[in-house]
Amino acid sequence: MNRLEVQKVLATVSMIYPNFVIEEAKRTVTVDTWFRFLQNYDYTDVSAAIGEYVETSNSSFAPNLSQIIGIVKKHQDIPVRLSFLEPAEAWALVRKALENSTYDSEGQFSALPQMVRRAVGTSKQLFTWATDPNYNEGVISSNFKSNYKEVCDRELAYNDLNTRQRQGVDEIRQRLIDGERLCDIEVKNTAENMPSIGENAF
Length: 202
Fold this sequence. Notes:
The protein is mainly α. Helices cover 73% and strands 0% of the residues. Helix 1 packs parallel to helix 3 and helix 3 (43-56) crosses helix 4 (65-83).
């Protein structure tokens, strides 16, 4: 959303709820505050959230920022959750892939959905499971389903981040893929964010 759209949102709320009055002296601060928290959301989604609040809330008071954002996130969350396979469905795909993973683990791995691949790890893991003489499906499937749930939860948490936070996460992921160790990244980031001696050091 841009600042003009934020002003339109505030005007809409003021029109619907007479007790939502913005003092002229505080107008700029109010717009700045709402813009800060709503700039990463789409105007259409925010407007729809206000409409839902009006239709479902029995309160005579206007919605606050957290209530509006909560409704927007709820609707954003639904299609993401529905797009995830259930753990049992995800395991069924892995189980089928294992049938041909003794000679084509890379091809089988690449054919799996992205979230399932993340839960498996690598094509080598498929090969290891497929060729393990002590393969225990009960244990492996249970561990996989647990990993898969964790992967899905992390993805949902990632979707809740704002654009800047996502960029930071993406950068760290890429650095890990490139071979950097997480402890080295953490140490480097800490050093970069510390003030130099003589520059607000005390």
